[in-house]
Structure to design on (168 residues):
């Protein structure tokens, strides 16, 4: 059985993962409006992975005999000045999620809840990968400085992204 505190905090994280899906769907829509369909695909795939993260929290809360309680999801930003700005916002958001996961790990350790601690390890690793992949795209965007040919190539590359097998 989960403690009331962990039940509340895991439900908050479930909300954050749903909000993440909402943000990335909004970024995907922004890229569609800019005719950058590879970037849009990358963001759409990211949103699907966030839904999978939300589902993992949903399942875990239920499996531990606690109650899933859905709350309102915040309205996401809808416009960005550039692809670089959108990805910089994505990185800030992932850093926020990483801090949130780390906080959950701390609570699980304080409460000596080993099952929750083990469950969260997947997310600790996932956050390292998520920050790294967004950082990689930011670095490429900075290098190319809006050169149309390079942006076109990156758009094609991002259009190849497939959903991670652990998240499908
Ligand atoms: Fe579910 Fe992007 O963290």
């Amino acid at each position: 059985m989960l403690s009331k505190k962990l039940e509340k905090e895991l439900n908050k994280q479930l909300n954050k993962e749903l909000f993440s899906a909402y943000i990335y769907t909004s970024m995907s829509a922004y890229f569609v409006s800019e005719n950058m369909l590879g970037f849009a695909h990358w963001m759409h795939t990211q949103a699907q992975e966030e839904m999978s993260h939300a589902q993992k929290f949903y399942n875990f809360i239920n499996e531990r005999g606690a109650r899933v309680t859905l709350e309102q999801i915040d309205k996401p930003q809808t416009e960005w000045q550039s692809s670089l700005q959108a990805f910089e916002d994505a990185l800030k958001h992932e850093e926020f999620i990483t801090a949130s996961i780390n906080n959950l790990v701390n609570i699980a350790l304080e409460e000596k809840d080993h099952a929750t601690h083990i469950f969260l390890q997947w997310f600790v690793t996932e956050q390292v990968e998520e920050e790294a992949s967004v950082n990689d795209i930011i670095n490429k965007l900075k290098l190319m400085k809006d050169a149309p040919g390079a942006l076109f190539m990156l758009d094609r590359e991002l259009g190849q992204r497939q959903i991670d097998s652990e998240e499908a």
